[in-house]
Write a structure and sequence with these properties.
The longest helix is centred in the N-terminal third of the chain and has 25 residues. The chain is elongated. It has two domains: 121 residues, Alpha Horseshoe (Serine Threonine Protein Phosphatase 5, Tetratricopeptide repeat), CATH 1.25.40; 146 residues, Lysozyme. It contains 14 helices and no strands. With 333 residues, the chain is mainly alpha-helical.
Length: 333
């Protein structure tokens, strides 16, 4: 009798396992997201309000709050916001991947997303990352820089007569820049191979020309040097304004050589560190850093390249990967 009673139980267990396997097989992965390919190429500047709208819409689709529940579309929207530095979207997408919320479990991608959110100070993400460990491999598409998108070529236009290149004058100093600082930078910047207007743009964004500024991350002075960077470039007194400016310019000269004059990468590295730029193969997916880069580029009138001294340091070994990578693929790619 005991053996006979065990047969129905075994059959029931087998049925449960088969059903679970069937459900798992039906879950779409991020690699199988339907068209359009996600995240789509951005065809213009994306403002923070748009990123927040993507995240809020994703949350509504994830939970069925006022919209039909659609976890795949939620993942697409979270992905789109995540690559623009939205920490909450990064965390939410990682949570979906970790817990199979309508998409297949993928802890490798989740670890990268938790890491990006944790690096922006999100405590929940830091706790999750501590349990999952250090992310392995390259970052997923949802964390790759939007600037790498390959856009369709514009329609051809009729060739115009060749004209000599016009060199535009540099932007004027920021209106609140103290005259002694402007004179000091104009005098010293050429010694570091730097254009003065770039140094002043960095200084304005970093400290707003306050020589006593101290950030929560222990960055000091006009150029907001952290003690490690100050020591690395020979600054003995980080609170001395002249030494602080010299140290910041020495770091900028090094970054110019390391990223071969790409101002977008140089600005991102000055804010987030060169290792973060290399890890994410471009501007890191941090909201603060993305906004910082936009401010710097606007302050230098959209200038994209800057002369650099190749003898300062060899270029980053990751530069070829940055130049060859594209982000037109699906979030799982």
């Amino acid at each position: 009798m005991t053996a006979l009673r065990a047969v129905p139980r075994l059959a029931a267990c087998t049925l449960v396992l088969l059903c679970a396997a069937a459900v798992q097989a039906q879950l779409p992965s991020l690699d199988d997201l339907p068209a359009p390919r996600t995240p789509p190429p951005e065809r213009g500047p994306v403002v923070p309000a748009q990123v927040e709208r993507w995240r809020q819409e994703a949350k509504a689709y994830e939970h069925g709050d006022g919209l039909p529940r659609d976890p795949v579309h939620a993942a697409e929207l979270y992905c789109r916001a995540a690559r623009h530095g939205d920490a909450e979207a990064q965390y939410s997408l990682a949570w979906m991947l970790t817990n199979s919320r309508g998409i297949l479990r993928d802890e490798a991608q989740a670890a990268h997303l938790f890491s990006a959110a944790a690096e922006q100070g999100m405590v929940q993400a830091q706790n999750m990352l501590a349990r999952m460990g250090t992310p392995q491999g390259p970052p997923p598409a949802c964390l790759r820089p939007p600037e790498g998108d390959v856009l369709s070529a514009p329609p051809p236009v009729q060739a115009a007569a060749a004209r000599p290149a016009v060199r535009l004058p540099p932007p004027p100093p920021p209106p609140n820049a103290p005259e002694p600082i402007v004179r000091f930078v104009n005098l010293l910047a050429p010694d570091y191979g730097l254009q003065p207007h770039l140094v002043l743009a960095i200084m304005a964004t970093e400290s707003n020309f306050n020589p006593n500024a101290v950030s929560p991350k222990d960055a000091h002075g006009l150029m907001q040097l952290i003690p490690g960077t100050a020591a690395r470039f020979g600054v003995r007194n980080i609170r001395d304004a002249a030494q602080n400016i010299r140290g910041g310019m020495a770091y900028l000269r090094w970054l110019m050589a390391y990223f071969e004059g790409d101002l977008r990468l140089v600005a991102a590295a000055y804010n987030a560190g060169e290792r973060a730029v290399e890890r994410y193969r471009g501007v890191p997916p941090y909201a603060e850093t993305r906004l910082y880069v936009l401010k710097i580029l606007a302050a230098v009138a959209g200038q994209a390249k800057h002369p650099f001294d190749a003898t300062a340091t060899p270029p980053s070994p990751v530069l070829p990967l940055m130049r060859s990578s594209t982000t037109g693929g699906r979030p799982g790619g």
